[in-house]
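Hi support team,

I'm filing this because I wasn't sure whether my run with 3-methyl-2-oxobutanoic acid finished correctly. The job status page said complete, but I'd like someone to confirm that the output block is well-formed before I use it downstream. Pasting the exact inputs I used:
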Amino acid sequence: MSKQTQTRRKTVKDIAAAKGKTPIVCLTAYDAPMASLLDPHADLLLVGDSVGMVVHGLPSTVGVTMEMMILHGQAVMRGAEQALVVVDMPFGSYETNNDDAFLNAARIMKETGCQAVKIESGTYAAGQIAHLVERGVPVMGHIGLRPQAVNVDGGFRAKGRTNAERDRVIAEARASADAGAFAIVIEGVAEDLAAEITAEVSCPTVGIGASAACDGQVLVTHDMLGLFDWTPKFVRRYADLSKTISEAAAAYADDVRTRRFPGDAETYALRKPDPEQR
Ligand code: KIV
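And here is everything the job wrote out:
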């Protein structure tokens, strides 16, 4: 039997063990080719429900379905070899009760092969997190700005700017950690709050718009690559792909219209007869 070399995939234990030691690198991914490009550089690839806005053009993540998360989760799993793959549980798939949460989380794990799920974890979700973890589903929490609550919040606003809100975000962090989350995304909070939470909880925190005080960072890959005209203040652009793509599309259109494409190099020619093959 031939000996196959298989890349060891990171586990939730590896991510948890990085707390306070090595910054955790996370990016979102939604399809196989992008996942395979990001995989060598990331500890964790998140199939975020941001896919609804970034790829499907929805106004928020509220319209994202289980089917969408499963389809994109399957694609990412085909492209990612070594990063831990975490799939978001969409709005409406876990809030009702523990049984719904488990059935939907188990379906996501079975049908995609991902290693964990993420839940936007208001304090109410602590029960669901504990229920899932006890039954073999690793859970990443998500506190602070919770995009699935956009209709209650009236927009995507940073959290923890009043004392009451601060207390609420700290309570969310404690509840998620105590319930057994292996890591917690903190979104849209000021540095001192992120630092306080990171110092208090035993699991790693992964920040998005939550300062360098977190144990790791996550960005929406399309933002980081400069695919949109507008990006939030906390995004650093590492490329300007919207310009590259627009210029490429314009050059292609020009070549087609002026009949410069396809040229000889891109055209099949009649094969010369091979005298050996009769
Ligand atoms: O859906 C998503 O991409 C996320 C990140 C912003 C953390 O939850």
